[in-house]
Every structure is written in C-alpha cells, then in structure tokens.
Amino acid sequence: MSTYSIITYGCQMNEHDSENIAGMLEALGYIHEEDPWASNLVVMNTCSVRENADKRFFGVLGQFKKIKKSNPDFVLCVCGCMPQQPRIVEEINKRFSWVDIVFGTQNIAQLPELLENLHKTGKKQRAIIDNNPRIAEEEMKPVRMHNHKALVNITYGCNNFCTYCIVPYTRGREKSRMLSEVVCEIERLASDGVREVMLLGQNVDSYKDAIGNSFAELIKAVNEIEGIERIRFMTSHPKDISDEMIECFRTCDKLCRNIYLPVQSGSDRVLKRMNRHYDRARYLEIVDKLRAVCPEITISTDIIVGFPGETESDFEETLDIARRVRYDSAFTFIYSPREGTPAAKFEDQVDDVICHERFDRLVELMDGISLEKNKEYMGKVLEVMVDGLSKTSPNTYSGRTDGFKLVNFTSDKSEEEIAGQIVKVKITETKTFSLEGMEI
Ligand code: SF4
Predict the structure, then answer these.
(1) Which of 29, 166, 230, 372 is the most exposed place for a label (fewest CB within 10 A)?
(2) Ligand 1, closest atom to CA 171?
(3) Ligand 1 centroid – CA 158 distance (Å)
(4) Does the structure show a pLDDT above 80 at 6?
C-alpha cells in the first residue's frame, strides 16, 4: 500500500494545484498519509513569492536526505513556483540529488507519466514547461479540502509584471478558461453538494474568454447556478476592475459582500515604480464606487513596506490611504527582493531597520482599525457558513460570514450536523482577527 503526502506552500492557486495532484495520486492507488515523514511519496508544492520561502524550502528538502538513505523506495517530488526558475532546478540538481521528480506549475498533469518513467527507468525526472497553452483542468479530479466549498481556477498566469513580483515568470502568460467550462465545473460541484465557490486567478478582473466573456458576465452566469449559495473570488486588480463588475455587488445575490483589493502602496511615486498602473485617486474612486453599490462590503488588501526608494513621506501616504479606506483586514509585507524581478536590481533598497520600524507602525494602525470595525458586530446576529471545529478554540466551531469575517462559536450540534451549513450566530465578543459567539 503506497502512501502519499503533499506539503503545500503559498497561495490558494497552489492549494488547488495540490488538490489536483492528490486526485491524480489517488487515481494511481496511493493512499493519503497526513505525516510526510511517514509517507512513501512526498510532493513539495512550493511558493517563491518571498525570500524566506526559498530558505524554508531548501531547509525542509535537506531533511529528506536521511529518509531517502534509510528507504531507497521513498519518492520525493518538487513542483510549484520555485522549479519554474532555472536557477532553482540547477541548485536542486547540484545540492539535492535525492529529489526524484521535478515538475512545474504548467504541467502538473504530467506527474503520473513522470512517476511511471521513474519506476521503469530508475532515472531522475525533470520536466518544466514555460507557457503551456493547455492546462487540462477539466480532466482533473481534485481531492478537495472541504465538501461544502471549492476552489475553481478561472485564469492562469499573469501579464502585469509588477516590478517586485516573480509570478509572471513562474506561472506564465495569462490564459482564461472558457465561461462555459467554468460554469460546467461549478454545476458539477453544486450537484456534489458544494455551496460556496472561490473563483481563482492572479488577476480575475482581466478575465476574458476566447469569445469575449468578461469577469462580470462569468459572475452573473455562476449566480444562476442552483445549489450555489456563495460566490467569492481572488485576486482583484485595481487597474482592471470594471464598473460592470462593481455593479454585480448590487445585482448578484450570491456574490459575497467582500473584496480583496491589493493596494500595495499609498504613494503614486511608489505605485509607478511598482508598475501597478493605477494611482491613489483611482484606487479611492473604486473603493467609493464599491461602497456606493454595497455599503456593507468588507475590504481586505495587500501592502508592501520598504519598496526600493520608499521615503518617509511615501510611507505616510500609505498610512493615510489605510486610514481613509479603513480596511477590515490586510496582508502586510516587508519588501523582499526576488532574483529575476526588476525591483531586485533597483539601487535604492531601503535599510532593513527602517523597513521593520515602518512595518510595525503599519501593523499597529491596521490592527487598530480591524478591531474597531469588528466591534461594530457586537450583539449582532450573523449568518456563518460552518467549516468545522475551530483550530484555535476547543469545543467551538468556526466559519465565515458573507463578509469573510472569521467567527468562532459554540453550538449544541455535532460536527456532522453543522459542517457546511449556514447557521445564525449571535456575536458576544469581538477581537482583532475574529468574532466570538453562540449559535441561536
Ligand atoms: S498582478 Fe502583479 S502582483 Fe499580482 S501576480 Fe501579477 S505581477 Fe504579481
């Protein structure tokens, strides 16, 4: 009986790729093993968005050497965004020769063939494809993390080339799936009991299929699918978001009142050097339009601190835009130079001490705003889609509101009864990153 385990780093695109990889391995007869150190086959699905991702990856890779020594039949595979970079494959071949199979983000469907070749020839397998025109999503049978909600790719790759970002070099050029194919997949999911879908793409707003269907048209089509109760999407890009798409927050009753709209910086000068193709005025205009059609919408974002050349007054503009938008939550990062990206070569890198000092000020501001906003839910009754037992609080369940608020709550029901259901929860306590309550 062969067992497999997948170690997944990074974004939801990677999580969904891991679901597809699990599906292929189970189709080959492998059985899932939670503990990678006790498994016969391990797949490391890597992320390359920040420097420490590289360090962590090579650290874990090194630890598998002794497993391979004690069990020569053990198979180690590496995929994801790191091996899409030739320097990483060279490093693996030079220093980590016990890695059996290396493949990339564009050819995960090739894994069964690579495994077969490995077993037949005993030779190490290396297969990286740039810009694969066809990703064969419809042939995949993902092993989903949840029964009641599903990740659905709508686009692959990115054409934006933000100067700090490695993704366009690791996930290739942008490709949109046909609207009809996405709708078909979601209809199948709904018939399997899925009630919430997360539409995934590096930049969903630039979705346009081969016959010209836009992202707004896709949302409207998914909104018609029976059985689906909640529609979410990520990631939006202020440069491409359309009025037609914003209007969907008024007209599509299943579209969750929540948007993840990365701003990255509040300074026009820095946004220009990031190659983001919008300025703060345009960004604030979008936020105003969103709140005009949907006053209760919750907004989350990404902010990078310490981008090369960022001055104190640039940073003040970032703090200012955060105060004006009052985000419900934010992913905040210190700029991390990625080899192969233009910004990594910019000479005016910001001193580390200054980066950390600014990062701390930003986090303090963002956490303060998140807590204030969460306090507005005190005593309210919210509809929560239950994911299951809470990871943080014992004897409680956790789930998400329509606005993507994390709610931990008590209930007399069993997990079998309540998981995947939408229940009413009265909020009895508010925290910075979550709400607490009891089912009513
Ligand atoms: S939009 Fe920019 S930050 Fe996002 S994936 Fe594309 S290049 Fe990277």
Answers:
(1) 29
(2) 5
(3) 6
(4) yes
Instruction: Write out residues with Cβ below 6 Å of ligand 1.
Output: 158, 160-162, 165, 167-168, 202-203, 237
Q: How far is the CA of 375 from the centre of ligand 1 (A)?
A: 33
pLDDT at 118 exceeding the cut of 70? yes
For residues 390 and 386, give the distance between their C-alpha atoms in angstroms, rounded to a whole number: 10
- Would you state the pLDDT for residue 135? 60
Q: What would the mean pLDDT of 133-157 be, rounded to a whole number?
A: 85
- Do 322 and 233 belong together in one domain? no
Residues 163 and 220 in one domain: yes
Q: Is residue 133 part of a domain?
A: no
255-to-109, 202, 245 alpha-carbon distances in Å: 31, 19, 11
Same domain, 276 and 370: yes
Q: How far apart are CA 265 and CA 314, in angstroms?
A: 8
Contact 399, 363 (CB under 8 A): no
Domain closes at, from 256, 290, 322: 256
**Which tokens sit at 106?**
């564009």
Ligand 1 atom nearest residue 235's Cα:
4
Of all protein residues, the one whose alpha carbon is nearest to atom 1 of ligand 1 is 160
CA distances 418 to 144, 223, 337, 413, Å, are 18, 24, 45, 6
132 belongs to a structural domain: no
Nearest residue CA, atom 2 of ligand 1?
Answer: 162
For the chain, how many structural domains are there in total? 4
389 CA to middle of ligand 1, Å?
34
User: Residue 373: which region, alpha, beta or left (left: phi > 0; alpha: psi -120 to 50)?
Assistant: alpha
Boundaries of domain holding 65: 3-127
Q: What whole-number distance in Å separates Cα of residue 258 and Cα of residue 70?
A: 50
pLDDT at 357: 98
Give the total residue count for the chain.
Answer: 440
pLDDT above 90: residue 242: yes
How far apart, in whole angstroms, are the C-alpha atoms of residue 56 and residue 58?
Answer: 6
Whether residue 317 sits in one domain with residue 408: no
Out of 158, 164, 333, give the residue to mutate to test ligand 1, the one with the largest number of ligand atoms within 8 Å of its CB: 158
